[in-house]
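Quarterly update, task 2.4: adenosine-5'-diphosphate-bound model.
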Amino acid sequence: MIPTAFATLPLDPSLLENLTSLGYSEMTPIQARSLPPILSGKDVIAQAKTGSGKTAAFGIGLLSRLVVSHFGVQGLVLCPTRELADQVGKELRRLARFTDNIKILTLCGGVPFGPQLGSLEHGAHIVVGTPGRLLDHLRRGSLNLKSLRMLVLDEADRMLDMGFSEDLSAIVASAPSNRQTLLFSATYPESIAAMSATVQHQPVTVKVEAIH
Ligand code: ADP
Ligand code: MG
């Protein structure tokens, strides 16, 4: 049996308390299986169906790895669409509610650059966004990833389906090679395995199959 209490994980007590206040009394199966390797710094491929709590799995990992006193982008989450990036940004902010000090920025296409440039100048610990816009910021020099510790590809299967493969490769190429890389997906097609081989190092694979 895999433990399902968040308290069995090496988490900051105030983060644990916040999980309780969010009503997260126990880990979902994908959280219980992916969080131990994530928290030990391993690259992880995590597959589980929509609605299984994948955001909190990588979110808790991100929040636990941050050095809050260092004001550089340490976590980057790539999402296929603006709606999904907004949802992830929202969930990360809920998870980070135990402290006022963690800055999370959502950067997506379809909106003007100006305000995003201003926000980036103020700095952020975690950036969530869509690949095209993030790549634009990297190319303009308004975003740099030299402090990046953790890269998350969320809904990786959908990003590949939507043709983001080249943008993803270009973003990954500008991230430090000693980063931790997490790949989250609802399905596990061959293209995900191929993507993993190019962006991850000795990944642990965690799959939670549907029981029906
Ligand atoms: P996925 O990314 O797998 O589709 P989400 O991360 O969007 O799923 O989570 C689905 C819902 O489950 C969200 O409303 C989230 O707040 C909730 N949730 C996540 N983890 C837990 C937990 N441990 N206990 C209760 N609810 C949770
Ligand atoms: Mg999700």
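Highlight for this quarter: The pocket of adenosine-5'-diphosphate (ligand 1) is lined by residues 24, 27-28, 31, 48, 50-56 (CB under 6 Å).
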